[in-house]
């Protein structure tokens, strides 16, 4: 006599929220403006413009690009704008800041598109393991969005969750 195998997780009503579904998989690149500055700290407009004009921007094709200056230079806003306009025809998106700032921007944009009402009164697990580098702030952001809606909120995998929140019975 064989026992029927029952998938208790599938029958539990648990809903999984997987942040890696919102991870954009295209390559990220950092562009540092400092090598284009005189002595790494001064924008000499004529030379700067020429160097930007002569640069091969095609290496940023189909990438997300973070644009920053790694030196302690005072760089006028127009210089960053000029570089971003030179990268724009090749890149998917350009963000002024670090690679972390770029990742934040990408996740904020994607998570803003979600209709969180679909999780109303549900038992939700924010999936913990992923093959892509999901930043910690994204977990916090999603938890805050889900908190007013869900019946319960957990973190991890269906087989081993960490309870985060359970609504009070009315």
Key traits:
2 domains, alpha/beta, 4 helices, about 170 residues, single chain, 3-stranded parallel beta sheet
Would you tell me the overall average pLDDT?
90
Note the quaternary state here.
Answer: single chain
- Report helical residue fraction: 25-40%
Shape: elongated
Number of helices: 4
Q: How do the SSEs run, as a string of H and E? A: EEHEHEHEHEE
Distance between the termini: 45 Å
Overall SS class: alpha/beta
Tally of structural domains = 2
Give the arrangement of secondary structure elements:
Blueprint: E1 14-17, E2 28-32, H1 45-54, E3 64-68, H2 77-87, E4 93-96, H3 99-112, E5 123-127, H4 136-146, E6 152-157, E7 160-166
Parallel strand pairs: 1-5, 2-3, 3-4, 5-6
Antiparallel strand pairs: 6-7
Helix pairs in contact: 1-2, 3-4
In short:
The chain has 170 residues and is α/β, with parallel strands linked by helices. The protein has helices spanning 45-54, 77-87, 99-112, 136-146; strands at 14-17, 28-32, 64-68, 93-96, 123-127, 152-157, 160-166.
Question: In words, what does this structure look like?
Answer:
This protein has 170 residues and is an alpha/beta fold. The protein has two domains: 1-24 and 116-170, no CATH class; 28-91, no CATH class. It is 27% helix and 21% strand. The chain contains four helices and seven strands; from the N terminus they run ββαβαβαβαββ. The chain has helices at 45-54, 77-87, 99-112, 136-146; strands at 14-17, 28-32, 64-68, 93-96, 123-127, 152-157, 160-166. A four-stranded mixed sheet has the order 1-5-6-7, with helices on one face. Strands 2-3-4 form a three-stranded parallel sheet, with helices on both faces. Strand 5, helix 4 (136-146) and strand 6 (152-157) form a beta-alpha-beta unit. Helix 1 packs parallel to helix 2. Mean pLDDT is 90; it is low at 6-11.
């Amino acid at each position: 006599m064989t026992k029927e195998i029952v998938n208790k997780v599938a029958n539990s009503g648990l809903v999984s929220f997987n942040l890696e579904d919102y991870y954009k998989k295209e390559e990220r690149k950092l562009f540092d403006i400092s090598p284009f500055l005189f002595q790494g700290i001064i924008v000499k407009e004529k030379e700067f413009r020429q160097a930007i004009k002569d640069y091969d921007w095609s290496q940023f094709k189909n990438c997300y690009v973070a644009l920053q200056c790694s030196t302690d230079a005072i760089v006028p806003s127009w210089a960053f704008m000029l570089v971003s306009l030179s990268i724009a025809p090749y890149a998917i998106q350009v963000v002024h800041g670090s690679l972390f700032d770029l990742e934040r921007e990408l996740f904020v944009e994607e998570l803003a598109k979600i209709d969180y009402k679909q999780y109303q009164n549900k038992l939700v697990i924010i999936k913990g393991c992923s093959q892509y580098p999901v930043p910690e702030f994204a977990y916090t952001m999603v938890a805050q969005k889900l908190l007013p809606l869900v019946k319960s909120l957990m973190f991890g995998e269906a087989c081993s969750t960490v309870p985060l929140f359970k609504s009070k019975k009315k």
